[in-house]
Amino acid sequence: MLDRLDLNILNALQQDAALSMAELGAQVGLSSTPCWKRVKRLEDAGLIERRVAIVNRALVGLPVTVFVSIRAGQHDENWLKRFASVVSALPEVQEFHRMSGDVDYLLKVVTSSIEGYDSFYKKLIGLADLAGVSSAFSMEQIKSTTALPLV
Q1: DSSP helix/strand/coil, 133
Q2: Dihedral class, residue 67 (left if φ above 0, else alpha if ψ from -120 to 50, else beta)
Q3: What backbone phi and psi angles, to 5 degrees, belong to 136?
Q4: Number of alpha helices (DSSP H) and beta strands (DSSP E) in the chain
């Protein structure tokens, strides 16, 4: 069970995972050792999966975001496993969701340009039997966060 201190720790780490234990403890009202023990417990319990740096896509040459809707060509278990495996291995795919409704899968893809997406698209359709692929280019990113609304 998470208490208020656990939630405060998770919230602070979602904003800045590079905080030292002393800085984190000061933010949540704990000394370093008890704070470290709580963080360790949260990691061991799987509540903190990993700590990462969020890179500016535009500054590294990947300014284009495309949402790709896919209708599967088949629905047997072997096809689904193979498709999930090959799509998960594509570095351009930032998110990969199996959906309900008319679309079977939704991908969030980042790329350098429309030409870069075209290259990705050709690779994607060569990997599996697909019934349909539809692409929507993001015109403007209005909000993007990795932080969950914990408190």
Answers
A1: strand
A2: beta
A3: -125, 120
A4: 5, 4
Q: Show the domain range for 80.
A: 58-137
Tens-place pLDDT, residues 126-135: 999 999 999 9
Domain count, the chain: 2
pLDDT in tens, 82-129: 999 999 999 999 999 999 999 999 999 999 999 999 999 999 999 999
- Give the whole-angstrom CA distance, residue 110 versus residue 55: 12
DSSP bridge partners of 93: 109
C-alpha 5/C-alpha 12 separation (Å) is 10
Q: What is the pTM of this model?
A: 0.90
What CATH number does residue 30 fall under?
1.10.10.10
Neighbours of 99 (CB within 10 A): 12
Q: Is the pLDDT of residue 18 over 80?
A: yes
| Residue type (1 letter), 11 | N
Radius of gyration in angstroms for the set of CA atoms belonging to the chain, rounded to a whole number: 20
Please give the single-letter amino acid code of residue 122: K
Q: Where in the chain does DSSP place strands (E)?
A: 64-72, 93-98, 105-111, 130-137
Distance CA 39, CA 5 (A): 10
